[in-house]
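Help! Submission page says 'invalid entity' but I think these are all valid:
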Amino acid sequence: VVVGAWICLLAPLGGALTVTGAGLSISRRTAAYLATLSVLVAFGGAFTAFVALLGRSGGDREHVSTAWTWLSGGAYRSGFEVLIDPLSVMMMLIVSGVGFLIVAYSIGYMDGDREERRYFAYMALFVFSMLLLVQGGNLLLLLAGWGMVGLSSYLLIGFWHERPSAIAAAKKAFVMNAIGDATMALALFVVIKRTGTLAFGALGDVHGSWAVNLIALGLLGGAVAKSAQLPLQTWLPDAMEGPTPVSALIHAATMVTAGVYLIVRTHVIFEAAPKVQDLAAGLGAATLLLAGLIALVQVDIKRVIAYSTMSQIGYMFLGVGLGAYANGMFHLMTHAFFKALLFMAAGIVIHALAAEQDIRKMGGLRQLMPRVYWAFLIGALALVGIPPFAGFFSKDSILAAAMDHGAYGYVLWVAGLAGAFLTGLYTFRMLFLVFWGEPSPFAREHFHALKNDVVGVSMGATVGVLAVLSVIGGWLQFAPVWHPVETWLETVAEPLVSPTNWQEAVSSILAVGLGAAGIGVAWLLYGVKRRPVPRAAFWQRTLERKFYFDELYDALFYRPSAWTARAFGRLIEQPLIAGSGRELGEDTRDLGGILARLQTGLLRTYALAIASALAVLAVVFVAVK
Amino acid sequence: MTTLLILLPIGAALAIWVLPLNPVSAGSLAVLAALVEVGVWMQLLVRFDFDQTGLQFEQHRNWFSDLNVSYHVGVYGFSVWLIGLTVIVMAAAIAYAFWVGREHVRAYMGLMLLLDGAVVGVFSAQDLLLFYAFFEAMLIPLYVLVGVWGGPGRLGATLKFVIYTMAGSLLMLASIVVYGLSKGTFDLVKIGSSGSDWVFLGFVAAFAIKAPLFPLHGWLRDAYTESSPEVAAVLSGVVSKAAAYGFLRIAITKFPGPASDFRTPILALAAVGLVYGALLAFRAPDLRGVIAYSSLSQMSLITLGLFAANDLGFDGSVLQMVNHGLVSATLFLLAGMIERRALTGELGRLGGMARGRPFLATVLMTTGIIALAVPFSSAFAGEFLILAGVFQQGWGWAVVGAVAIVLAAMYMLRLISAVLHQDPGPAISDAALDLRPAELGIVVPLVGCLLALSAWPAAISQHSFAGDHPKQQVTEAFR
């Protein structure tokens, strides 16, 4: 178990270091193979650990292996250690498995880029960071992985660093995530103060509602930043500036779902702070609606998918916020499959159309690339949650769980159902615009098919595997009949809600019906005849401006801090502090000048000075005596 | 061994001044001496017993016996790390000066080596007058190095630097005299604690100027911008740590009462400096301005940790002193290398240097992300301990610190992007080379130290004070 986990963690780091260290001495293709191999080895390690855990009884499935003391301060210690339990193994399998497929896909997608080696070093570094996040055996290492995924995300979003927009997006993502890191760090300070340690077990020992709420809020801050939920959601759409496989791996399948993992991992503290828990679920519901609405007017294929990611993570937050941990994690897994599939299929489209991402210029691609169309269709159906595709099994259970949470649960439930309708609408709007109808002039002009070489195989085969997973991945658990995921995770996090079969059925029927209705509306609007985005000036502008969040944050945070910095510079630093030295210098020189005048060189002046000094001294002497 | 560490560079300095060497052999001798110094320190590190509380490698000779002044040197756990930081950064700075080829190389190298010995002396002196002597011996070479070999504005910069530090030194001297005479000895180990506010404030003023702390940082901007890059690296990397060391070894240990009475105002100044420095770094128009103000911010953070006065704060501060020393020295050296290629440090005229210059891009990116304390880096480890420590003094301090972390990300990313990304700026020609092997040989060891510390920050935080209770040691054993 332990060996497998360490191999899983360290193999991608080794890959990243080898590719970086080898530099120009290896060819670009070799670098790509090395990175892919290192992630495959990681998957092998994860699988070994999984099999080893399967062979043990439920109570014996938690292991911590410490390599060395990473940080200490006084009596406080945190080891460099990995935690192997059902939850971390599940995440390890998803991260290294989907990660391997996406890195393998990159061999084709990034072929010919001048800085391919750097790309693969970053990708391997990201997989290491993400594994550190999910395997880290204490809160500090979790935060370390948390920061490292933010860093590799920054590096990969800004991979094409000549583009000002890419660099701006990368910086924005990093700073937004740094805000989350900071609130998490504050939560950890409370934990240290109360318990003197950062072991996960310590969370259970924190008492007092003030401390508990503060810790939960701090952790939630980190979770919403990383998972692009309200109110720290604005970085994700911009992050689409990175290469498409990066969007698939980091901004769909793995990193952005880390917030969900965090809540499940630290569920003890959230259960002790039910208000924060409700807040998490509420933020999830609000985000899923908001993102679904914005997705309706986006014209960039990657941004539509990015908003659908935000929206789906909203479902996961909704689920784990209600205490339906296994359902949330199950949706995380199926989402990793079908969202990676959508991004990678979109990547093939972009690749085939000379890097064009505007869906208005596409059209009729079904005729040009039928296999990609089928893959995309599978992904889209899974996303909307149409049976028997994967999303159906995982999403509907979350909605059913909402029905088991009183009145507040019903509000969330309605939001989730509305979201299902929106999902159908925006997903198939995109699908119809891109693939249906006659091929657009632009598509005809620029289309070039994938060849059957390494490039074509690496992209085609991986998309094929994900398409299969997006179909069968959901069959792993069908709530009323069998629930292996729930049983697997039971020892880590007991669910708080247990919906009845009746609630499952109602939710499923309504969700599927609404999703299908969404598809129908999309078909009426965009399938039968091609019409541009809906025309309602105010709403359209609001949606295109993403509800003005960027403008709001600019006015609330960026401008005031830039203004303060400028004011400090002008009003304090320049005149008072930087100028002080010069003035001191001048004053000293002036004083010296005055004193120098005393040295006249005339004997009578000195005699006068001596005499008057003696006189003063005599007076003082007499007076004192 | 401690004496050897002090005298070796000073002896080498005298040899370079006295012997009629040509520039190349003078430079080589200096680099060799600096490297041997690193080797001697490694011996010290290996032979040091980190489980033992007291002073080690102690040497004691009477000097003025009627005043009880003595030549008394020795090292504690945390001094070992600060001396290590000194000798490593000095070796890199001397090597860089040799590579660049400063004018009057014998004079220059001699001064650098003298500085090396003096700083090691500051970190190991256990007698107040000896400490003062080394403190001054450290400043004098700096005046000359900034004043003679600096940039166009060097005279103004030197003048400010001299006035500020002289004022601090005089206050400290007055404090030392009063304190020592009142106790009848100047020996730091024997002298015992004092409750005098004025004596305490005299020391604090000297260290607050040297660190610097807001608002006593008037000398910082010009001194860091006008001096040659390796001198700036030493100033911010090493010399500023002498001030932090002074806070720890003298102000906090010897004056427990005043240190606790003045805790809130000092923490407040540090908190202001932390945010103020970060904001100015975000607005600074040139490379060295960003690094200079980030240095103000970081030294404030270290002060915050020291005056948190608990286990986490002390351990974190020592770790962060080493981290910041390495980070800031590397950044100043890199700034120098970039300025040599672009002939300017203005951020607006740089850019696009990543394309075709993989070594520069990798080294600058690595240093930059450690500097902004990305989690899992050694700088993160240090900041985390410091803020966790100061959180226990009051949650507000840690919130300010958390804000500064976000600001640090903003100014450091701005610097990285301005140098490396987007289209090449007007000052960057295609002929601007990647880092040369010699330059890599200078900065890569520094970055290597940072990466090693990132893998194992406990190497320092666990081995600065013997046992698990730094606070107990500071308040009892060192008093």
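Support: the input was valid. A stray whitespace character was the problem, and the output above is from the cleaned input. The first helix of chain B runs from residue 2 to 18.
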